[in-house]
Amino acid sequence: MSFAKYKKLIEEGDTVILYLSFNNLIPITVKSGQTHQNKYGALKHSEMIGVAYGSKINLKKGYVYVLHPTPELWTQTVPHRTQILYTTDISMILTQLDLRPGSVVVESGTGSGSLSHSLIKAVMPTGHLHTFEFHKERAGQAAEEFKAHGLSDYVTAIHRDVCGEGFQLDHVADAVFLDLPSPWECIASAKQALKKEGGRLCNFSPCIEQVQKACEALSEHGFKDLTTLECLLRNFAVRSVKLPLADLGQSELETPDSAECVSNKVKVSKMDHSMDKESGVKEVAQPFKKVPKCDLIGKMTEKDFVFQTGAPPVNTQGHTGFLTFATLYPS
Ligand code: SAH
């Protein structure tokens, strides 16, 4: 099994992402003789061997899906040895650093390797990631994971304090990514690592004071186009909702052509309603009939009006960190 290349059937030693539900995914390494206990029952690892990735496996009290790992699924399931970066920030980083197959990228610290997996996937098969971590065990665990995930050819994992000892790379990188408590201490070394043609740098810091110090150091070392932003994910659930319809006495008025309305034949008041926990919006569980053009509003006998809307969730993920991007132009 490799994160680098999809394959069809599960084999001994593979990393499989067990999908129990949308928010409950578990990574397991397949070892025949072992059993994975979950809320749907006992899953013998041997039952997965020879099964196609993506299959549904029935258990005593339900079922699970066995998924092929991807960097995105890994970010959702990675054992946390540190705070990690999530897909919302990661996608912005990959885009803003202009990463593509063939790019060479430098990262510190490696942490739990959540971002590293996406960086590798973005630059492979011809690019390379140099990732640095000063915590010995973490550096070792990350290196082992890269190997187990079939990524060793695309990454060099180094145990080093990059603030004290620098990256020790001369003009090889297209991009540098920093997720460190004191990033300003290694900006000079990051500059040295970037190619003479220049490149992009991204710094991730949770506090604005860190951002200020990092920006000062970046400016001092000749980086330009400094931009700091924060990525906040906002999901919308598309739901059928009902609202009371005010009687404005405009029974003969037509709505615009684009409006989608509900036929007055639908018995709205007899429909089954339930509260959606995530959005806090009342959902009409039973499908309703739509007509393309509506001149029915005024003729509706019911007091409610049913329509489709995008409802934000009650709880939205908050601040993770500030992303500062900068460009180093050719010297
Ligand atoms: N981006 C990572 C998480 C990084 S957490 C992820 O997505 O998984 C920050 C890491 O930086 C920690 O593991 C910490 O040990 C490491 N670190 C802190 N200072 C460092 C330094 N001077 N040199 C190298 N690594 C450092």
Tell me about this structure.
With 331 residues, the chain is an alpha+beta fold. The chain folds into three domains: 15-69, Vcp-like ATPase, Chain A, domain 2; 79-233 and 318-328, Vaccinia Virus protein VP39 (Rossmann fold, 3-Layer(aba) Sandwich); 239-296, no CATH class. Helices cover 21% and strands 29% of the residues. It is built from eight helices and 19 strands. The protein has helices spanning 45-48, 71-77, 87-96, 114-123, 136-148, 162-165, 187-193, 208-220; strands at 15-21, 24-29, 35-38, 41-44, 56-59, 62-67, 104-108, 128-133, 155-159, 175-178, 199-205, 224-229, 237-244, 261-262, 273-275, 282-284, 290-291, 304-311, 322-328. The strands form six sheets. Strands 9-8-7-10-11-19-12 form a seven-stranded mixed β-sheet, sandwiched between helices. It is globular. The model is unreliable at 251-276 and 278-301 (pLDDT under 50). The structure holds S-adenosyl-L-homocysteine. Residues 82-85, 108-109, 111-115, 132-135, 138, 161-163, 179-181 line the site of S-adenosyl-L-homocysteine.
Key terms:
single chain; 331 residues; alpha+beta; Vcp-like ATPase, Chain A, domain 2; Rossmann fold; four-stranded antiparallel β-sheet; 19 strands; binds S-adenosyl-L-homocysteine
Give the helix proportion (percent range): 10-25%
Portion in strands: 25-35%
List the uncertain runs: 251-276, 278-301
- Name of the CATH architecture of the largest domain: 3-Layer(aba) Sandwich
Q: Helical region count? A: 8
Brief sketch in words of this structure:
The protein is an alpha+beta fold. Helices cover 21% and strands 29% of the residues. Helix 2 (71-77) packs antiparallel against helix 4.
